Amino acid sequence: MKKIKTKKSNSIDFQVNGGKKLSGIVKTNFSKNGSVGLLCSSLLNKGITTLHGIARIEEVNRVIEILESIGVQVKWPDHNTVVITPPKQFKPENINTESATQTRSIIMLIGPLIHKLSSFSIPHAYGCSLGKRTIAAHVYALEELGVKIKTTNKSYDVSVRKLKPAENIVMYETGETACENILFASALVPGKTTISFMSNNYFVQEICFFLETLGVKIDGVGTSTLTVHGIAEINKNVEYSNSEDPIESMMFISAGIITDSNITITRCPIDFLSLEIEKMKRMGLKYKILKRYYSYNGRTKLADIEIFPSKLKALQDKIHANIYPGINIDNLPFFVPIAIKAKGQTMIHDWYYENRAIYFTELNRLGANITLADPHRVYIQGGTPLKPAQVVCPPALRPSMVILISMLAAPGTSILRNVYMINRGYEEIAERLNSIGADIKILK
């Protein structure tokens, strides 16, 4: 594999003048996870793929650098639209290893590339530092189709002789990237492949909608058992629109709550926020659903949500994430600022990742009262006033964002150092928070 240098920006910090109420209207941007999944799945198509609603974030930049390094042509005709033209011959030996090792999205190249190459290697994937993250679910599912994956110290070596459909693939675990990979793989295996224990989270559904646009029939979209009717070839010029990001909607809701503000968040993927809203409602949140409609893909249901200053109380039950339709795993951290605001003690259980809950204790630097019970559980004593502090972003996207929005509620000047992690997943977030009354300065 050839190592290619990427252009890296210098470390960027945020200076936050906190203690201000937010007000006004803010729009939910396009989905981060949908963007990277769609970019990878576009490789299935021999024709030109035009994708609208692709987030302009660092994670997407890394994926595009990877695609370009193996021969894919990617153009941005406008801000959130990419046009992807595949090469006649993919060249994985030229893969940009520096970009590849910065994102776990690299693993999703396996599903498309097995249809283009009989053997190839990709480097090990990283991304957020959230503990050990196995690829066993990818390996076991792809093996059922005839794919062999050998793990070495530096790479995953992939080989395939003859692909075949599978009658009943049982996902070893319901991880979204593994579910996306098996969808990519089965889409171009002629015949019927049935997969059970699938994730039906928002970005897995997005891939199903896109594959249907490409001409692949999928039964059971939105359920945990999917049947993919694979086809021999996809060669068509298509356009598709990515939907909005429920994790970003949740972030703005959390920011409004901890700053005791009245704000409206538009274009919220409501089906993927309903349980979160129900939990907040039981904590005492006052809110209103203003309008319901569909995203540009014509499939994802959206809503505009207005939240009001509310006196919250802690739930007696723990708050924990689960596979959809449970609380989204990436929405769970945004309950931490909400619990800081709520009167009483809240237990948050982040069982999915080995050590993400540890990063929640960084909020103690801002005056929060958070006790770490173990690597998965924290107890939050709510009602503690926050104070300004200087904090370095932890090596994880959502905990970094939680620190930023908590700084908005801390009167005085806080500094958040090295915000690359935030820029991985959020587009122009300082400017957008400033548009609703925050005071964040970008320090370069």
Task: Kindly describe this structure.
With 444 residues, this protein is α+β, with helices and mostly antiparallel strands. It folds into 2 domains: 13-29 and 244-443, Enolpyruvate transferase domain (UDP-n-acetylglucosamine1-carboxyvinyl-transferase, Chain); 32-241, UDP-n-acetylglucosamine1-carboxyvinyl-transferase, Chain (Alpha-beta prism), CATH 3.65.10. The chain has 14 helices and 23 strands. It has a 4-stranded mixed sheet. It has a 4-stranded mixed sheet with strand order 2-14-16-15, covered by helices on one side. Strand 19 and strand 20 (377-381) form a beta hairpin. Helix 8 runs parallel beside helix 10. The protein is globular.
Brief synopsis:
This protein has 14 helices and 23 strands. The chain has 444 residues and is α+β, with helices and mostly antiparallel strands.
Describe how the helices and strands are arranged.
Blueprint: E1 13-18, E2 23-27, H1 32-41, E3 49-52, H2 58-69, E4 73-78, E5 81-85, H3 97-100, H4 110-113, E6 119-123, H5 136-143, E7 147-151, E8 155-160, E9 169-170, H6 176-187, E10 191-196, H7 202-213, E11 217-219, E12 225-230, E13 238-241, H8 246-258, E14 262-269, H9 274-283, E15 286-294, E16 301-308, E17 319-320, H10 335-341, E18 345-349, H11 356-360, E19 370-374, E20 377-381, E21 390-392, H12 397-407, E22 412-417, H13 420-425, H14 429-434, E23 440-443
Parallel strand pairs: 2-14, 3-13, 9-10, 17-18, 21-22
Antiparallel strand pairs: 1-22, 1-23, 3-5, 4-5, 6-8, 7-8, 10-12, 11-12, 14-16, 15-16, 18-20, 19-20
